[in-house]
Amino acid sequence: MAAKIISGTEIAKQIRAELKEEVANLKAKHDITPGLATVLVGDDPASKVYVGQKEKGCAELGIYSERIDVAADTTESELLALIDRLNRDPKINGILVQLPLPKHIDERKVLYAIDPAKDVDGFHPVNVGKLMIGTRCFLPCTPHGIQELLIRSGVETAGAEVVVVGRSNIVGKPIANMLIQKGKGADATVTVCHTRTKDMAFHTRRADILIVAAGRPKTVTADMVKEGVVVIDVGVNRIGQTPEGKAILAGDVDFESVKEKASAITPVPGGVGPMTITMLMQNTVEAAKEQGHVA
Ligand code: NAP
């Protein structure tokens, strides 16, 4: 039986409609307009596209956005001074520094300089630590989006065997941490695989829910999953170009074969991707509420 397709595009649309209403209420009842600053260093084409999508997302929902483009040769101290200014700007509730940064800038120093209360990407160690101990914090956007996809698709995580392929700080580690917490969309038993895992298929075949964030097409094939598995494919790989020059994208999972065994699966594109930006908007709204002392 072919799998149900979990549409991130549809679920993101639903969440954005809810957020739009929340933003309008915040303005009407509390005179608060959530504000997001996006900082882009240099002119990497992919980063420009991502920042543009974030600006568009803000405009759609009525969130104030400030885009700050600085030259690729901006020094680390100039960038830190900019972060300091944004930390103190009351119009700005969330700060996003688009990664990667040029090599002469210490990425960690910049991310750690962001006020944890404005860290809507959830990369500051204060938020990472809070996630680990299970207290309220900004959840990193991609794992947050994955958890929302599972909740809103009615996938039961409590007691489920979840296998995560990948252990990066932005996807693998945080989603594993989120799913072992107590509560809604969590309470799972989680195994994390990586390139040093001895027999990955042994683990993936046990999975009730399989989350793949490896960054390599066809990392997971049909022989590596059991019937009825729920598959969340995080990967975004450019595997070619259309004659018009548009990138052809594929996930990390062999979608065509795996969808025949899975009970549900996310497509690429249209799965996790649209959720990531939506969760950034949600974190910005949360930041505005917290800073404005709105319950
Ligand atoms: P990353 O930092 O490169 O990490 C990849 C992880 O996968 C590493 O932990 C690596 O193991 C593991 N891995 C790679 N090949 C493997 C294999 N054959 N078997 C087992 N483990 C393997 O990547 P990332 O930032 O987490 O991103 C992963 C993918 O998700 C990329 O395609 C990225 O573009 C995509 N992504 C999508 C979104 C979205 O919004 N849709 C957001 C973020 C990322 P080692 O640690 O041992 O090297």
What's the arrangement of secondary structure elements?
Layout: E1 4-5, H1 8-30, E2 35-41, H2 45-61, E3 64-70, H3 76-88, E4 94-97, H4 107-113, H5 125-133, H6 141-152, E5 161-165, H7 172-179, E6 189-193, H8 200-204, E7 209-212, E8 230-233, E9 237-241, E10 247-250, H9 255-258, E11 264-265, H10 272-291
Parallel strand pairs: 1-11, 2-3, 2-4, 5-6, 5-7, 7-8, 8-11
Antiparallel strand pairs: 9-10
Bound molecules: NADP nicotinamide-adenine-dinucleotide phosphate.
NADP nicotinamide-adenine-dinucleotide phosphate binds at residues 142, 165-168, 170-172, 193-197, 200, 213-216, 219, 234-237, 272-273, 276.
CATH superfamily of the largest domain: NAD(P)-binding Rossmann-like Domain
Bound molecules: NADP nicotinamide-adenine-dinucleotide phosphate
Order of helices and strands: EHEHEHEHHHEHEHEEEEHEH
Strand content: 15-25%
Morphology: globular
Radius of gyration: 19 Å
What's the CATH architecture name of the largest domain? 3-Layer(aba) Sandwich
Average pLDDT for all residues:
97
